[in-house]
Structure formats: C-alpha cells, structure tokens
Design goal:
The chain has 388 residues and is of the alpha/beta class.
Length: 388
C-alpha cells in the first residue's frame, strides 16, 4: 500500500479525571478532589492551545482526540470550547476527525447528542468486557447493560463508532473469550480496539498478582487468544491494522494512524505529551501531571530536542506496530533531506535477516513489516532490530 507523506498536525487533548480508578490502569488519571468549574477547564485548555500554537505556527489540523481519563465526564460546553479553540488556532481539514473516549455509565442519549452538536464526529466507548463478572473484577463502575445502551444510542447518533475491549484476563479461556467477542460484535461499529490485559507496575492488579490472589493467563493461552482475535476480526470484516486495532478498511482511527505513521501531534492537558516540529527542530513535549496545578494555569510543558536518529528510530518503532509496516516511501519523505533514505539504515541487518528467515518479518522494496507471527513477539523483535 502506498501512503502519502503525512503533513497535517494532530491534537491530543488529555482529560485527566475519572469517577474511580480501575485496578489495572496506570494512565495519568485521578479522581478529582476539588470543586468542579467548567470555566476554569476552558480557560486552561485555551491557554495551553495558545502556547502550543505559538510554537507550531500555522499548520493544517487533521484530527483532535479527547482521551483520558474519562472525557465523557467533561461538560459538552468544555469539549465544544476546546474544539473551537483548536479550529481557530490551526487550519482544520475539511474532513477533520474529532474523537472522544466515553465510559458507559457517565453519559446518556442526551449527552451523546450534545457531544455531536459541539463537534464530536467519532466516539470510542470503553466497554472492556461483556461478561458481568469479569467487568466487575476489572473494577469498572458500569454494567454490561449500560454498555449496550450507550452503544445502541451511539449507533443512532454517530456514524463513526469504536469500542475498547480487554482480553487475556485472569481465568479466561480462548473458547470463552471467542464467545464473548462474537457476542460483543453484535454491537460493533466500524472500529474496535482490543487490548491484552497488561500488568502495570504499581497498580492494585500488580499487587494482587504478586501476592498470588490473581493468576494471569500463561503465554500460550495469551498467544492463542491473540491469534483467535485476529482471525475472528478478519472474518468480521475488520482486520487488524495495528497490534490492537481493527477496522473496516478506510475506517481506521485517523488520529492514531497518523501518529503511528510518524505525524506531528501536539498534546494539551495535564500529563499530555506530543511530538512537534518547530522552526528550531524536532521536540518531544511533556506536560507535568499535576492536574490541580494545571487548572489554575497550565505550566509550560518541557520541550526536549530530538535528534534525527531519535526521530527515525521512533518512527520505525511506531510504524512496525502497523500491518502496513514502515514504508520506504514514508520514511524517505520524512528523513531523506536529513541524509536517511531507507529505514534499514537504522536497523541491525543481521537481526532483520534472521527475523525474515524465521518468518517473523518481511522486507522488500516497499516496506519492512512484521508478519502475524512477528506481531506476537514485536517487542523482542524491535529491541533486536533497533536496540530499544
Ligand atoms: C486511557 S483508557 C481511556 C478510556 C476510558 N477511560 C475507559 O477506561 O473506558 C484507554 C484504554 O486503554 C485500555 N487499558 C487501560 N489500561 C490497560 C491495561 N493495564 N491493560 C490493557 N488495556 C488497558 C482500556 O481498554 C481503555 O479503554
Ligand atoms: S476509567 Fe479508563 S482511564 Fe480511568 S482508571 Fe479506568 S481505564 Fe483508566
């Protein structure tokens, strides 16, 4: 597949609040302990966007993504004000994609309509599990029925709909998972994200596993679940386009796809990070995580300069997550003027050859890609290929 060089800029808006903290989650989110004031959130996001615009200059805006945390807890007026500020700061593409992550149990039909009316045109629902016992064990604050209601309403209100599931959960067999997945697909839109449960350091889940109260599936079971998921999703017309993401062809999340293809993205909100090109070069940006401080007036994020090699290595790491792989065309479009024409110049060629011989990767004139077998061991592969 050929791919046009990505020129647009993308905006990630971090909403750092949740109703309760799920036991497996180490995302930058907190349960707020201060008086809620939408006007303060609006002022803080506007200030953050203005500061970012001063660094990026005029750019075409390809997408806005409200992630969290639980952005469906924000008032639609806050979401609308952020969309307006972004559209005023940069030049929105005619097909601007504006996604919001919503948790079931935090939003009803009226709220979904209000989000559409302020400019959200793609909804991503945190379903996580369609098995009530598993949902409860994950520590979610909603029921399966609430998930089904939100998805049913969302189908009427949004043409672009996705939901998230978590698989490879404690005690889950491949057979039971496949039944759950097939049941969930009755509610599917054009896109799904299906993550394998990861034990993140410092979470209650990590403690429970360390103390033997919870046993995670073994490697073979996880691998079988991973393969089954890809097979079922391909049969269902939503093949994997990334390790954990599945869509009808053409219905990929443009925001995330652009980032995996190496596009610039700015981050606003506490703990948000970004990768931006300015007159002074390439930068990794990182906001401080303190949301209470951020609401009072966003502190300037850190801008850490990136070398060409840093950026090229990162580009390869991200693009190898994609089914299309790292294409020579996209790599050259970004790096040829800086003396790097081919992604293989950044790779350990012996490791690449070995991975190709083992059927874990393919490498030709168009791209370097991980095969289905390679995706299952992607972290090991990439660390051997580019030493990360
Ligand atoms: C930042 S969350 C935002 C969505 C929303 N807050 C929710 O939970 O419904 C994005 C997604 O990451 C996934 N996730 C979070 N922690 C995870 C973990 N430890 N293992 C696997 N998936 C995880 C969940 O599927 C979640 O929907
Ligand atoms: S609702 Fe989402 S972001 Fe919040 S704690 Fe749970 S998984 Fe993490």
């Amino acid at each position: 597949m050929t791919q046009p060089p990505e020129t647009a800029f993308h905006l990630y808006v971090h909403w750092p609040y949740c109703r309760a903290k799920c036991g497996y989650c180490d995302f930058a989110s907190v349960v707020p302990k201060f008086a809620w004031d939408p006007a303060k959130f609006i002022a803080a996001y506007r200030a953050d966007i203005a500061a970012l615009r001063a660094r990026t200059g005029a750019r075409e805006l390809g997408s806005v993504f409200f992630g969290g945390g639980t952005p469906s807890l924000a008032e639609p007026e806050v979401i609308g004000a952020v969309i307006d500020a972004a559209m005023a700061a940069w030049e929105p593409r005619a097909d601007l994609e504006v996604t919001l992550e919503a948790n079931p149990g935090t939003i009803g039909k009226k709220g979904l309509r209000a989000l559409r009316d302020v400019g959200i045109n793609r909804l991503s629902v945190g379903a996580q599990a369609f098995d009530p016992v598993a949902l409860d064990k994950l520590g979610r604050t909603h029921t399966v029925d609430e998930t089904k209601h939100v998805l049913t309403w969302a189908h009427d209100i949004f043409t672009r709909l996705s939901f998230d599931l978590i698989t490879a959960r404690p005690g889950q067999s491949p057979k039971v998972w496949e039944e759950e997945l097939r049941g969930a697909l009755e509610f599917a839109g054009e896109h799904l994200s299906i993550y394998q449960l990861t034990v993140e350091d410092g979470t209650p889940l990590a403690r429970a596993v360390a103390e033997g109260r919870v046993t995670m599936p073994d490697e073979d079971t996880s691998a079988e679940i991973f393969e089954d998921t890809r097979r079922v999703m391909a049969e269902f017309g939503r093949p994997a386009y990334e390790v954990s993401n599945f869509a009808k062809p053409g219905a990929e999340c443009r925001h995330n796809l652009s980032i995996w293809r190496g596009a610039d993205y700015g981050g606003v909100g506490p703990a948000a990070h970004g990768r931006v090109t300015t007159e002074d070069g390439w930068f990794a940006t990182r906001h401080a995580p303190d949301s209470a401080q951020w609401v009072k007036g966003p502190p300037a994020p850190r801008y850490e300069p990136l070398t060409i090699e840093d950026r090229a290595r990162e580009h390869i790491l991200m693009a190898l997550r994609l089914t299309e792989g790292v294409t020579h065309q996209a790599f050259a479009a970004r790096f040829a003027t800086h003396g790097l024409k081919d992604p293989r110049e950044m790779m350990n060629l012996e490791a690449l050859e070995e991975a190709v011989d083992l059927g874990l990767m393919t490498s030709d004139d168009a791209a370097v890609r991980a095969t289905d077998a390679g995706v299952m061991v992607l972290n090991t592969l990439t660390s051997r290929l580019i030493g990360q």
